Amino acid sequence: MRTRRSILKSATAALALTLGGTISAKADDALSVVATFSILGDMVAEVGGEHVSVTTLVGPDGDAHVYQPTPADARAVNEADVLFVNGLEFEGWIDRLVEASGFNGTPVVATAGIDAIAFEEGDDHDDHHGEDHAEHDDDDHDHDDHAEHKDDDHAGHDHDDHAEHKDEDHAGHDHDDHAEHEDEDHAGHDHHGHNHGAFDPHAWQSLENGVIYATNIAEALAAADPDNAAAYQANAEAFTAEMKALDSEIVALMDALPAEARTVVTSHDAFGYFAAHYGLTFEAPQGLSTEAEASAADVAEMITQIREEGISAVFVETITDNRLLEQIANETGAVIGGTLYSDALSGADGPAGTYLDMMRHNAMTLARALGS
Amino acid sequence: MIWDLVFEPFAEFGFMRRALLGCVAISLGATPAGVFLMLRRMSLTGDAMAHAILPGAAVGYLVAGLSLGAMTIGGLVAGMAVALLSGLVTRFTALREDASLAAFYLISLALGVLIVSTRGSNVDLMHVLFGTVLALDDAALILLCSIASLSVVLLAILFRPLVLECADPQFLRSVSRLSAVTHFTFLALVVLNLVGGFHALGTLMAVGIMILPAAAARFWVASIGGLILTAIAVAMLSSVVGLLLSYHFSLPSGPAIILMAGVAYGVSLVCGPAGGLIAQAFPRRHLEA
Hints:
heterodimer, A: about 375 residues, alpha/beta, 4-stranded parallel beta sheet, 12 helices, 8 strands, about 55% helix, globular, B: mainly alpha, 13 helices, about 0% strand
């Protein structure tokens, strides 16, 4: 059985090599892993290290919301030992692809265990934010426990981070910001009419969730390849330490911003988790999906809002038509703050080649525009 | 009340004024071309040409990103190539013009979709193809107005031979060697207007503003001058009403404008005095002495 499968695998690998496409060459002993989009792919590569070869279906700068899978993707999924998906209905096309490819495993949902932020009508939104924060704290605790029992050195650090965190973030500014947030949600009813599920899928936009991604990935890799379980664990811990360091860096950066300069306009509303975790408010003129066409009413509402609230920065993103934003910026005198990366990494030589670089780049760009 | 409904959106928001100016420019440039397309029974040619532009715009986008210039030039080159090639095939082979045009535009369309799809991110381009009349910047407005001016001047120069070719192409061919020149200049004009239109409404919508007002005008007047003026009026009215609907009822602007032109066509179809349904069902009695 085992041998027949490996023969089959090397045959398909040879086929893939000759045909090219998205499948990368892999060493014989490496675990073949598929991730649906570039950010998740980077995390998996980070945790898997040299023991896995990662294939990413939606590459850098691609939009996973409306991706059309190719036959090469189906072959990559079919050949995969482990398939990582973001979940929360981010990749609407993945179920059909899995079925069509004949992949006989269960996709690993990287967001498992995350407090998903619900897309609801304005009122539910309020309640949810309250709940979210309560749950958030619980979750942090769970996580500390995890960390402690894996590695004692980290425990002290973690506690520091989190203590800081709770004081500054949850007790202080956050509440004000959320009051603001609710009001604005009522004003700009952009959230309706997109085709997501019930929850905001862009969970990676908070490094706190990034830690959960890493844990889930390490567990799944260890289950699929028990021989290297220790290596995956170690990688995940190193990665987690990096994420936590960056997280407190960003928290400090955001806390330094004046309370009245914390509302940002972007063309693609994918920063719900970033907003909740770091205490900013993001507004979008186009609603949540990149598919919907903006109406004159949406744009007028946005302009009125920018004028009334004195919003100073407008951000252009990687994957939506930014001419509309430039128009709004022209008309209101708001500054175009730079490029934020939301759903995809930039190319390897761009400013957001990895998950950590992306988070750092976004935070720096935001701080620079809002601080000026 | 009326101020709030009709004028306030334009008074308060610059993007609404820009959208309106863009639509007025397209109405002036594209609609007269649409009238001649209709008179020459080439209404579907406009549609074919709009598809033919796709690969050029896509290549322009791949080379220079969302650049107005590159996509305009790309679209023009692709559109002209299809127009010329199908014209040449018609002249030198046994194939008729409709078939050769269909062949070339289908090839062009397939090529366009192929080029669009090979890029990882196709969303940008889809936005471009479906247009954003709300996002017209200065460069796009200048381009639209220049195209409108150029096409008004060219139509004025070509007016007589074009009318002749609509009425009696055989006659024009027998008395003048300019028949072919007229034909190709006219096709170039159509391509030019479609390329301009796709910046504002998207390639497919641009055909709508070209053809629908012309078809609606046909039910009201018979003279060519009257047709052109009525069509322009219908196009402008549809633009204003479409934009206002988009503003008040939060509808996407491009489709709202075209649908308004569609409503104008529907009303004309039923009520128009020149061959409308009601006029045909109840013919007026002949005046008798």
